[in-house]
Specification:
The chain is an alpha+beta fold. It has one domain (2-120). It is built from two helices and eight strands, in the order E-E-H-E-E-E-E-E-E-H. The strands form two sheets. Strands 1, 2, 3, 4, 7 and 8 form a six-stranded antiparallel sheet that branches. The chain has a two-stranded antiparallel sheet with strand order 5-6. Strand 5 and strand 6 (78-81) form a beta hairpin. The longest helix is centred in the middle third of the chain and has 18 residues, at 33-50. The radius of gyration is 14 Å and the shape is globular. The model has no long low-confidence stretch (mean pLDDT 86). It comes from Enterococcus eurekensis. This is DUF1033 family protein. Pfam families: DUF1033 (PF06279). InterPro entries: DUF1033 (IPR010434).
Length: 121
């Protein structure tokens, strides 16, 4: 079973820390990869229009964010960026299929990766 899901939290969608499911906002289930891919692309285009920054991983994992959307971390004593993650998974794991680069090659990828010290412990 394939899933297209959106997550919102302080981690990009490719980290899959132990509590990653707590950040899930929406899950859609599909029986085929092709159906899931159509939904992923549809959601990707919608989110691209709403967010200033995008960081793309080749296996259908994308982080979107806007400057200033942060969560205060007491342990880190600083604000952590909040990300809207979009993922296409198979049985709750990243797919090994890579997205067609032409789909997003006009996007300038940006990295704003910062992991909370709580996650590194």
């Amino acid at each position: 079973m394939y899933q297209v899901l959106t997550m919102y939290g302080e981690n990009e969608p490719w980290w899959f820390f132990g509590d990653w499911r707590e950040d899930i906002r929406e899950i859609q289930q599909f029986s085929t990869f092709e159906e899931a891919q159509v939904e992923y692309r549809k959601q990707w285009e919608i989110l691209r229009a709403k967010y200033e920054h995008i960081h793309i991983k080749p296996n259908f994992l994308t982080a979107f964010w806007n400057d200033g959307e942060e969560h205060w971390c007491e342990d880190c004593v600083e604000g952590l960026q909040l990300f809207l993650g979009l993922a296409l998974l198979k049985d709750d794991k990243p797919v090994t299929i890579e997205v067609d680069r032409a789909f997003y090659e006009s996007i300038s990828e940006e990295a704003k990766e910062k992991i909370c010290i709580r996650k590194q412990a």
